[in-house]
């Protein structure tokens, strides 16, 4: 579950970017996998979602949101779950290294 404590306050300016997303009105099943999806079917669905994201005018805002709240599921800002996890883990590792150095 996403850590909602990191979510921005419910001010329309903080969320207005979502109205401009290329995914708005699209079938959410493109961006979120069913429980049993594996292998090539999952890779194909994720590639389709990422193509939509990469043409999106608010890709940066979407990605920043997903990383800031550590969104655990789906394709957000052109990144999948594992990509976000790896990036967040790398950022934490670099922070620990700087603090410990």
TrEMBL record:
GO terms for cellular component: cytoplasm. Upon Fe-S cluster removal intramolecular disulfide bonds are formed. The Fe-S cluster can be nitrosylated by nitric oxide (NO). Residues 22-86 form the 4Fe-4S Wbl-type domain. InterPro entries: 4FE4S_WBL, Whib. Its cofactor is [4Fe-4S] cluster. [4Fe-4S] cluster binds at residues 23, 53, 56, 62. GO terms for molecular function: 4 iron, 4 sulfur cluster binding; dinitrosyl-iron complex binding; DNA binding; metal ion binding; protein-disulfide reductase [NAD(P)H] activity. Binds 1 [4Fe-4S] cluster per subunit. Following nitrosylation of the [4Fe-4S] cluster binds 1 [4Fe-8(NO)] cluster per subunit. GO terms for biological process: cell redox homeostasis; negative regulation of DNA-templated transcription. Keywords: 4Fe-4S, Cytoplasm, Disulfide bond, DNA-binding, Iron, Iron-sulfur, Metal-binding, Transcription, Transcription regulation. It is found in: Cytoplasm. Acts as a transcriptional regulator. Probably redox-responsive. The apo- but not holo-form probably binds DNA. PANTHER family: TRANSCRIPTIONAL REGULATOR WHID (PTHR38839:SF5), TRANSCRIPTIONAL REGULATOR WHID-RELATED (PTHR38839). Belongs to the WhiB family. This is Transcriptional regulator WhiB. The gene is whiB.
